[in-house]
Design goal:
The chain is α/β, with parallel strands linked by helices. It is built from 39 helices and 34 strands. An eight-stranded mixed sheet has the order 15-25-24-17-18-19-20-16.
Length: 943
């Protein structure tokens, strides 16, 4: 039979840190800390396999199996602690804590003080000599057990508590006397009976079993499910349950509880020990946001006071640091900080409790951090030689770099903005958006395409959906470790927490601050790095790419094999991408160049006569426009059409050439793949009446003619219509004009390395046709300009499945392939890019597809096409250059795939270039680590 229960504490443990999958993160690390000799209250962990059985075999069956084991371990715990569970003069109280392999803060349930009943209550009073404390513990227990285990509404308990407080004129919970607490307990028990139709259980084993049941059950509560969805957490067995000896931070002034990070989770700094605590408090109090938490270190405390506008005297009197209040415990905790970082070799997030001057460690885990912090910590730890360079690279999630690359407020316009309030800088970044006051509203507004800032008095786990769609989060209450702060940092979202001056009125959907009333929909701006709240919108500017970010990127470049290029259509975008480290352009879409300004007029003139030209060529059986010109000499109308066609091309040529010159200059000798015209011609025409009228006027034709033209070009399925190389085959003059513009620009800008890409070829004959036109043009330009040598590659996009499976044929005509995985996905999966949004969400939710294949490359299908094409292509042309230019080129999982199949480079939008560089390095390092050399791949050098 499987072992379902693991003991920890008393200097040794059955589990260890590596056993996270089985013991959950919390359980595995409690075991590890106990083995390290750190002061951990002993206990035992029920495995995630037990949780899986809970759902598979059912709870009845599971409890039959595990309860004997639980009893055995409880016996051992009693022996270790010298306490007895549910009876005797020295009663053992327990916490029952959830904890999965991946931490999901606050998503699942915990019950504290379990084991209290009238008998243990008396014993504990005698033992502790503190009657009030014991009654407070009891009322907390009833509340937590009732809420978590039996589903008695939380606010009913709050209401009961408030009514007693009101009756005796108490403001704070801590002011309630023993007698008053007894009254609370009586009310709680009544409430409990009302909701559950049962008396509150006195039998400790019954309490324990129900507690375990509730924690296992909480694995599938809606918010835990939503959290796993949002964070893409999959493939876990379930949660473990940790049953642990209680320690008390609420037994008086020499007690306390807190949470701390070994480095600053929001900046990565470690100038001092970063954390918060409260005197005379239990567990949840620090994160609940009901009392203002105090800082661990004196230095931290002084900085906090400064940003909170608290004077030194008030700080010292009302908010002293742990360093001041309990110097001995502080010192011990500080030593543990160093020990834990050395041991885990990563930033840790710890929970601790001090019971009557004795420090206990309740949790350690790898601390969640913002992207800037992750980068700084990784770079620092490499420098400190705590981790290797490769580990440094693996420590940063490529996707998270997104936050570093996006703009911050322009200091000028931030200075000019009206600041309304200050809060805590809970999660860095800048956000401008429209105010909403509930998570639901946030989701609705975001759905409508609006940019929102979610303002709440404080957030709770129910709000995560709304937080996920908001640009920024503002709370009126709560500290740096409040729910809003922790979740926002995890999401990489700007957050200002505890802005106490904001008076939020949910009913009125309004907020009063600094004498201003802001309503739902009003624009505000948040600076999460400074903790500032501003009225209105603020301009943003680009981020800095040096410092720790530069260090990590340099390391990424050292370890990656894949090249990284960018998709850019303008010199401006190309320059940004080069700044972000792009090694060239993998896709320039020339059609964008046809839209701007006067060009669209020229191009529309061409489209207007294009069909006539096609018909005339057919009628006179000629291919070239020159030959047609001769053939139609006497046909006045035809002569005019040819003239207009040629004139339009002549107008477009210098404009295109100038575009390419600009891009080549920005690239400074880096390669540039230029795709020839791709979209169908009707995309360039106005589809509304007003637009058509206007075009008619410009073209000096009748509006009815334009309308007829648009109708004649209409396609039922444009994606599969007259586009890509199919256009060039009908109108080779357009291909020639584009090729000429590219080549002339390349001659003009020394060192240019153009790569001409023919789109949408499905058969080698299509490619050969267009290649011939391009080659003729190149030769002609070379001769005219007297240029002998010119490096121009000619290749194709692989985006039609037929091209992928005949890639050996195609490779004979192609210097390079670039996988256009957007269209390849569309045609490979048979999902219309424009319509699949309607059902792909459901597909992913039901697990029919693991991911949206337009976002994450579908390895099994589309990926297989890519793989086949790579192999066939290389067989026919060993030196063929292989790249990808679809949206997938900047998506980390897809980049990993590109590495695996051995592409030479990926290409993505400028802002994703650093993400791709890091993802490529990770893929290379992970492959090296798994040390299984991939088939068909030699050691590769970047081209
Ligand atoms: P979460 O995963 O939500 O952090 P935890 O299991 O860590 O949940 O527990 C919630 C709170 O209860 C924490 O603040 C923790 O410090 C406190 N707590 C848990 N176990 C004990 C214990 N044995 N003694 C005292 N406090 C505890
Ligand atoms: Mg915890
Ligand atoms: Mg395409």
């Amino acid at each position: 039979m499987a072992k379902y229960v693991y003991f920890f504490g008393g200097g040794s443990s059955e589990g260890k840190a590596q056993m996270k999958a089985l013991l959950g993160g919390k359980g595995a690390n409690l075991a590890e800390m106990a083995s390290l000799g750190l002061p951990v209250p002993p206990g035992f962990t029920l495995t995630t396999e037990a949780c899986a059985q809970y759902y598979k075999a059912g709870k009845k069956k599971l409890f039959e199996t595990i309860m004997p084991e639980v009893r055995k371990h409880l016996g051992k715990l009693e022996k270790t602690t010298g306490k007895s569970f549910g009876k005797g003069p020295n009663p053992l109280l327990l916490s029952v804590r959830s904890g999965a392999a991946v931490s999901m803060p606050g998503m699942m349930d915990t019950v504290l003080n379990l084991g209290l009943n009238p008998e243990t209550l008396d014993a504990l009073i005698k033992q502790s000599g503190d009657e009030r404390f014991v009654w407070d513990a009891y009322r907390r227990f009833i509340q937590m057990f009732g809420d978590v285990v039996m589903g008695v509404p939380h606010h009913d308990f709050e209401h009961a508590l408030d009514s007693v407080k009101k009756k005796y004129g108490r403001k704070l919970d801590t002011e309630l006397t023993t007698e008053e607490l007894k009254e609370v307990v009586a009310q709680y028990k009544k409430l409990y009976r009302k909701h559950t139709k049962k008396a509150f259980p006195n039998d400790p084993m019954e309490q324990l079993k129900a507690g375990i049941d509730a924690v296992f059950g909480s694995w599938n509560n809606p918010r835990a499910i939503k959290y796993r969805q949002l964070h893409d957490i999959r493939g876990l067995l379930g949660t473990a349950v940790n049953v642990q000896t209680m320690v008390f931070g609420n037994m008086g002034g020499d007690c306390g509880t807190g949470v701390a990070f070994t480095r600053d989770p929001s900046t990565g700094e470690h100038r001092y020990f970063y954390g918060e605590y409260l005197l005379n408090a239990q567990g949840e109090d620090v994160v609940a946001g009901t009392r203002t938490p105090q800082q661990i270190t004196l230095k931290g405390s002084r900085e906090w006071a400064k940003s909170a506008g608290v004077g030194e005297a008030e700080r010292k009197g009302s908010y002293p640091s742990l360093e001041e209040t309990m110097p001995r415990c502080f010192k011990e905790l500080d030593q543990i900080r160093v020990k834990l970082e050395k041991h885990y070799r990563d930033m840790q997030d710890v929970e601790f409790t001090i019971e009557r001057g004795t420090l206990y460690m309740l949790q350690t885990r790898t601390g969640k951090r913002t992207a800037p912090a992750a980068v700084k910590i990784a770079a620092d730890m490499v420098k400190e030689k705590l981790i290797t360079e490769e580990e440094g690279v693996l420590r940063v999630d490529p996707q998270s770099l997104d936050q570093l690359l996006h703009p911050v407020f322009d200091p000028e316009s931030e200075r000019a903005a009206k600041q309304l309030a200050t809060g805590l800088p809970a999660s860095p970044g800048a956000a401008t958006g429209q105010l909403v006051f509930s998570a639901d509203e946030a989701e609705i507004w975001a759905e409508m395409g609006k940019t929102v800032i979610l303002a709440r008095i404080e957030t709770s786990p129910e709000d995560i959906g709304g937080m996920a769609v908001a640009k920024g989060i503002l709370t009126a209450r709560g500290g740096m470790t409040s729910h809003a702060a922790v979740v926002a940092r995890g999401m990489g979202k700007c957050c200002v927490a505890g802005a106490g001056d904001c008076v939020i009125d949910y009913k009125a959907k309004a907020m009063k601050v600094a004498g201003v009333t802001l309503k739902e929909g009003d624009w505000i701006s948040l600076n999460g790095s400074a903790g500032a709240l501003y009225k209105g919108r603020i301009d943003t500017i680009d981020p800095k790419l040096s410092g720790p970010f530069g260090t990590i990127m340099k390391l990424a470049d050292k370890y990656r094999n894949l090249g990284v290029r960018t998709n850019a259509d303008t010199p401006h975008d190309a320059a940004i991408a080069v700044k972000f480290g792009a090694e060239g352009i993998g896709l320039t879409r020339t059609e964008h160049m046809f839209f701007e300004g006067d060009r669209i007029v020229s191009f529309r003139r061409l489209i207007l006569v294009a069909e006539t030209i096609k018909q005339l060529k057919k009628k006179h059986d000629v291919e070239k426009i020159g030959a047609l010109e001769k053939a139609v000499k006497k046909d006045r109308k035809a002569v005019a059409a040819v003239k207009q066609y040629k004139q339009a091309l002549a107008e477009l040529l210098p404009l295109q050439r100038k575009d390419f010159e600009g891009i080549f200059k920005a690239l400074k000798g880096r390669p540039c793949t230029v795709r020839l015209l791709d979209p169908p011609l009707h995309e360039f025409l106005p589809h509304d009446e007003a637009g058509q009228k206007e075009m008619a006027k410009q073209m000096k034709v009748k509006p009815a003619d334009v309308k007829a033209l648009v109708e004649s070009l209409h396609e039922f399925n444009p994606m599969l219509g007259h586009r890509g190389c199919r256009l060039g085959i009908t109108y080779p003059e357009v291909t020639a004009m584009q090729a000429r513009a590219i080549v002339e620009a390349a001659i003009k800008v020394k060192g240019s390395r153009p790569e001409i890409m023919i789109p949408l070829a499905g058969s080698v004959t299509e490619l050969a046709d267009q290649k011939k036109v391009v080659l003729e043009t190149i030769e002609e330009v070379k001769a005219r300009k007297k240029v002998k040598k010119l490096d121009v590659l000619i290749g194709t996009m692989i985006e039609v499945p037929r091209a992928a499976v005949t890639a050996d044929e195609i490779a004979k005509e192609a210097d390079f392939f670039s996988f256009g995985t957007n269209d390849l996905t569309q045609m490979g999966c048979g999902f219309s890019r424009d319509d699949a949004g309607k059902f792909l969400g459901e597909y992913v939710a039901k697990g029919i597809y693991e991911y949206d294949p337009f976002q994450v490359l579908d390895r099994a299908g589309v990926g297989k096409l890519v793989d086949i094409a790579c192999k066939l292509g290389r067989k026919a042309r060993p030196k063929i250059k292989l790249g990808i230019c679809g949206e997938h080129g900047g998506e980390p999982k897809s980049v990993e795939f590109c590495h695996t199949v051995g592409l030479d480079y990926v290409s993505c939008s400028p802002y994703r270039v650093p993400i791709a560089r890091l993802a490529a390095a990770r893929a290379a390092i992970m492959e090296k680590r798994s040390s299984k050399p991939k088939a068909g791949k030699k050691s590769r050098k970047r081209k």
